[in-house]
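User: I'll paste a sequence; please echo it back and then give the predicted structure.

Assistant: Echoing your sequence first, then the prediction.
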Amino acid sequence: MWGFSYWVFPLFAACVWLAMLLAMLLTWLIDGSPHYLSMDAKQQIAYISDIGADKLKPLFIAMGAVTVVTLDLSFIFERWLRHRGRLHPTTSNLQNALSILSILAAIAGAAGLILLTVFDSLRHGRMHNAFLGIFIGGYILSAVFTCAEYQRLGFHYREHRLLRASFWIKLAFILVEVALAIAFGVCQRQDKYNEAAVLEWIIALIFTFYILSFFIDFVPALRTKHHQSRATTVEMGMRDGAPAEFADGNGYHANGHTNGHTNGQAHGHANGAKRGRFFGGTSRNF
């Protein structure tokens, strides 16, 4: 994966998620804010799921799936880069366990979103609500495990501000989303569907910024990318039988042949014919 940038994954996932939300909201507004069959009689503001249960269901399924699959790949790549040492490596088995638990919770959250888009609120109301809970709960739990891991990493890498910034962003996401999710549930139970719909849109939009926070996590990998490429070049040069000093990845190996052989022939032999005897004779005298 030479030249590959892992920060593309969270950035792409965030763009797809935001584009999906905007497409659904703008479609509903442009269509004149229609009252869908899945909406309550007193409801005026559509849930994301109400719009996704209508003609935009294929878009809801496709873009929702792309978002969570790409995001979960970000979790996996982040773990892999820590293992390779391109990100701040974990320092204990507890940190490794927290990282794995974060990935598993994210996979559960991804499954919840994909299933709630398939089992829409119009035809499968109860199942849809259950999968919605799995989606929200899965990613909040994943964020909790990630924060716990980063908090422990912070003890060993206090000088790295990006790690600290990522921790605080994810912690803020947990606190805000939990508060909004509780308010959303209360509004639904009290049949305040318009307020609940507004809260759902806010929760979904904030999720965009949570996805983007993983872009910050991959920034240190950009700094180690050059060093890894350099080390790989040296390793390949050594494997080909070249001395380490001729395999620094900057064309020195090639110039080594050019200067060492070509110029060597020119200066070592041609010039040697003219000057070699003089220096050779002098060398013997010393």
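Residues 229-239, 242-286 have pLDDT under 50 and may be disordered. Helices lie at 8-30, 48-52, 57-84, 93-118, 125-156, 161-189, 193-239, 252-285.
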